Each structure stands twice: as structure tokens, then as C-alpha cells.
Amino acid sequence: MSKDAKKNVLPHSQAKLDLFKSYLETYLPILSLAKGITKINLYDIFCGMGIYEDNKIGSPLIAINAINKTNDLFDLRGWKRKPISLNINDGEKDKIENVKNLLKDVSMNNCKINFFNLDADEMLEKVIVEINTRANTERNLVFIDPYGYSNISKDKIFGLLAKGYTEVVLFLPVMQMYRFSEVALTDVESKCYEDLRNFIKDFLNSKSDFESIFDFINAITKGLKFDNKYLCCSHYIERDKGNYYAVFFVTPHLYGLQKMLEVKWKEDPSRGKGFKKENWGLFEETRVDVNKKIQLNYLKGLLIDSLKKLDKGLSNVDLFFFVLSNEFLPVHINAIIRDLKEQKKIVTTDQNYIEKNFGNTTYINLDHYNKNDIKIFFKLK
What we know:
Elements: H1 11-33, E1 39-44, H2 59-77, E2 84-89, H3 93-102, E3 111-116, H4 120-133, E4 138-144, H5 154-161, E5 166-172, H6 174-179, H7 181-186, H8 194-203, H9 213-223, E6 231-240, E7 243-251, H10 254-267, E8 274-275, H11 284-308, E9 314-315, H12 316-325, H13 330-342, E10 346-349, H14 366-370, E11 377-380
Helix pairs in contact: 1-2, 1-10
């Protein structure tokens, strides 16, 4: 008998929770150290049971553990803890009561835990109002793991992001959505497809944009950028063979995107794309090497295509945005540049477009990007 997904954490759900855990553990200390940030607000819109029958923990306990881990680090270093609010909600009363009971003895002098038993629409509206009336010095992270997609609309997601100080982690059953996308758009009389039809119209516009599940994921990623007002990356998760879910991360900050991409590549070192049920046994290292080479060749192709269009090439500042927006990291583009230089396919110039050898130095990093500090141009030979 198969396990009940509502009572147990199945592998695809564990992969999602691992990604969320890694991101919190990576980013909370960074936000807590940032001088311009006075408070961090975490929102878990669909918290679930907290602990499941297989004794695995859900998102609210993952958040608590990440906060405790950050506090332990700060206490060890003698740093001042930053105020944090953890807002936990579920529309099902038994679930929120179970989480409340699990956390009743948790006490941290810098963290206030608030519990809500609101339906998703009401909770999201509450969060939108709170976020948009807060000081610009506060940062917000909203985790949305819905029981479907009926509560996900363009207005709600944009409302969360509008002020520019919020990041959203959104989990969607993309295979189910993709499978019924065509009939949802053609059978306009059927009410059962109305939620999906509205989602597609909000984020995808038409069916013509996607011919496979991965095209569908890419189309949602593009839609969540809101005409490039925000940055977004995706992470697919295979539940069963050919049955995919996906996590989408939306942020106004390039640094936030970089941190999530680092987590994605840590969770999937071969592709940086997602969790796929594969077992190569003794040849696991070969699988990682083969898949990573395929991905780097793909990035190399994108880089060459971009350079072909530009006589003066791309600067180190341009390339930092280029590599992150394509869901890769500076370490990847640096390896490709070294390879192309060895093959004598690209040359480097200074700010005055005079050819110069910079060795292996590329200046492709956040610091130079934030300062718009152009040191070097890369162009095809």
C-alpha cells in the first residue's frame, strides 16, 4: 500500500523541504548580519502538520530549526540576535493546532511566533497589507506550499513583491497543471478548469509557449518575473517517473537569487535544475560529470550567441547578470571563459576596448556588479 502524502513526507516533498531548509540556513545569517535590515519576517501560508507519521518534519519546524541554528551562530560569535517574526498559518484547524502544540515550549528572545487559522486567500491578503505597510528596513520571506493552485493569482504574488523587500518561495503541482492546460483553455464552459484557466491567463497568456513539462516550467518562471521587474528561478522535482512538481523562487534582489542558485546547485550538483529519481549505482560520479558537462555546454552556447551580437563584447558586470539570470553561477561562467580563451575563441579588453591579458581574473562578482565597476570586456576573436 502506498504511503499517504498527507501523513508522510514522500521523496518529492522531502526534496522541496530540503531546498527550503538549505535556503533558510544560508540566507538567515546573511540577513541577520546586514546592517540596514532591522527585522526579518517569515510567513508559512500552508504549514501542514509540522511532524508527520514517518517522524519527518515539515516547514514550520524547519523554520524554527533554521532560526535556532542562526541564533547559535550569533551567540557563539558574540553578535546581537536580529528580531524575527515567524507567522504560521493553515486553513485546517487540526493542523495549526498540532503545530501550535509542537512549538508550545519554544522560547527565543528574538523570535515571536504567531499562529493563524485562516483560509489562504484571507491569509495572503493579510500578509500583503502587513508587508506593504512596514518599514523598508524589514525583509520578508513568504513560503507558499498550497494544496493545489486555486489561491495563486498574479495580483496576490505581485502584491507580495510590490514594495521590493519580499522574496517568495512557491511550490506548484506543475505536471497536473500541464496535463490539463490545453483542455482548460479550450473547454471554457467547464468550471472544473476555471482555476487553471485563470492561472494560465495570469502567468502564461497562451498554450503556444510550452510543448513539454520543462517548457511549461520555464514559461511559469518567465511569468513570475512580471515583465522582468523581478528575478525568478525554478527547481523541478520528480515524484514518480514523468510526474513533476516545481519550486519557484521570486526575488527583487540579485543577491537573493545568487543565494538560491547556490542552494540549487548544492542540491543538484550535476544540473542545478532539480530533483530527479535516478540511480546510477557505482557510476553516480559519471552521471554528475556527464550532466554537468551538458549544462556547461548549454551555457557556453548561450554566451557565444550573445557575444556574436555585440562587437565590443560583454563586460564583467554584464556577465554577472547574464550568468545568474540563466540560473548558473560565476564559477560556471569562469570555467567556460577559461576554456574559450584556451581555444583562442575569445579575447579580453580593458574599459577602452584595448586588448589586454587579465590572466584568469574575470571580476564577475556581486561587488563589481553593485558598483557598476567595469574592469574587463570579453568578445569573440
